[in-house]
Design a protein that fits this description.
362 residues, alpha/beta, Rossmann fold, Glutathione S-transferase Yfyf (Class Pi), Chain A, domain 2, six-stranded antiparallel sheet, five-stranded parallel sheet, 46% helix, globular, binds adenosine-5'-triphosphate
Length: 362
């Protein structure tokens, strides 16, 4: 999978901009605030219709303009496709090969991208909700049925919480309607848990090896699924809902469920959340992203593209070299950096270098 070119119109600090990419490694070099991350953001946006920085369209549209356009030709599944997104303040319009696409699920998949940005360190240090979001997003990219289960779960959960409000007003008891909702919730959660469990197990094995390689040490990194229930079966989930009913009724929200789970990260059996240094966190997250690339390849048969924003500046020389060793021409990669001075690696020497100097655009 690759993106051959990118055309930006009134996107962030770009008025009109066209760029062609190499199918191997592309390095975007430029001073601060020149628009390097904006390009990575545009590629990612083209991939999943969402930015990794904001959910507000207006922030991506060039100041004092009403629309932004991001367009690119991608090669996937042995075919060329043209992807196009038009952002207005209120909406996004997507096109594939010139045709309007109405459902996001019909758009996602033409360009699969894995992105690393400095904010991703929150995957280790941040709250469980960040890791859940990561799980849901990445699983959604490779498993349409997961999107189906998750959508169903969220709808049922909303319905349950609304019904709790009604029961609270009526001073009602755990009744047949709630039991039916809980049964459906239990069934769909069993499917989601199975998918999450399998994904984390596979990711963990890969992360362990990649971390050992990049860090060049004997630290063992493991990912562990923290499920909300010990024995995953319908009966036990229903018992838990009945046990939590009085509490749920008081707080008008459902306490137990997959919306409360976590993916714990351990380094040498200790919580990375509590003990990992900045460098260890960065290496863990990078290993997770590279592991994802392999996992996606196993699932869809093609490597996704890899977007690395400002990854080189924070790694020590040894880790930098090891990371560059892993990158290769099979995976189209984009690296942003302010400078490549002093990096003597063949990957950097052979890469396509693109100078980004767009601050002056008005
Ligand atoms: N909606 C917008 N309209 C116009 N300019 C914008 C908009 N959003 C951001 N910018 C400008 O884009 C520039 C930042 O671009 P970007 O984040 O890509 O920088 P960068 O090259 O990655 O910098 P650094 O090396 O500091 O991370 C800033 O000058 C900012 O003012």
């Amino acid at each position: 999978m690759r993106i051959n070119n990118l055309e930006l119109t009134d996107f962030r600090n770009y008025n009109h901009f066209f760029i062609e990419f190499d199918q191997g490694i592309n390095i975007l070099i430029g001073g601060n605030a020149q628009g390097k991350t904006n390009i990575i953001e545009a590629i990612y946006l083209l991939s999943v219709c969402k930015s990794f920085r904001t959910h507000i369209n207006d922030q991506m549209i060039r100041f004092d303009h009403d629309f932004a356009k991001v367009k690119g030709n991608v090669f996937s599944n042995e075919r060329m496709h043209q992807l196009e997104l038009i952002l207005s303040k209120e909406s996004k319009k997507a096109k594939v090969d010139g045709k309007d696409i109405l459902k996001i699920s019909d758009y996602v998949g033409y360009l699969n991208a894995v992105v690393f940005v400095p904010d991703d360190l929150s995957l280790v240090k941040g709250s469980p909700s960040i890791r859940r979001k990561f799980l849901d997003l990445e699983l959604s990219k490779i498993s349409p049925i997961y999107v189906f289960y998750l959508t169903k779960y969220n709808r049922l959960l909303k319905e349950r919480n609304q019904y709790l409000k009604l029961l609270n007003q009526r001073r009602g008891k755990y009744d047949e309607y709630l039991e039916t909702l809980d049964e459906q919730l239990a069934e769909v959660q069993i499917k989601i848990i199975e998918k999450r469990n399998n994904f984390i197990e596979r990711l963990s094995l890969k992360v362990k090896d990649i971390y050992l390689n990049i860090a060049n040490c004997h630290e063992i990194v493991e990912l562990q699924y923290e499920c909300f229930i010990k024995n995953v079966n319908k009966e036990d989930i229903l018992k838990l809902y009945q046990k939590g009913f009085e509490r749920d009724l008081r707080y008008l929200s459902t306490y137990y469920g997959i919306h409360k789970e976590d993916m714990k990260i351990f380094i040498d059996n200790k919580s990375a959340h509590q003990f990992a240094s900045q460098g260890q966190q960065r290496t863990i997250v990078l290993s997770m992203k590279i592991a994802l690339i392999e996992l996606i390849k196993e699932e869809i048969g093609e490597y996704p593209i890899l977007l690395l924003d400002d990854v080189l500046s924070e790694l020590d020389d040894q880790r930098k070299t090891k990371l560059l060793d892993i990158l290769n021409n099979r995976i189209q990669t984009f690296i942003t950096t302010t400078s490549i001075d002093g990096i003597e690696h063949h990957v950097i020497k052979e890469a396509k270098k693109i100078n980004i100097n767009h601050r002056e655009e008005k």
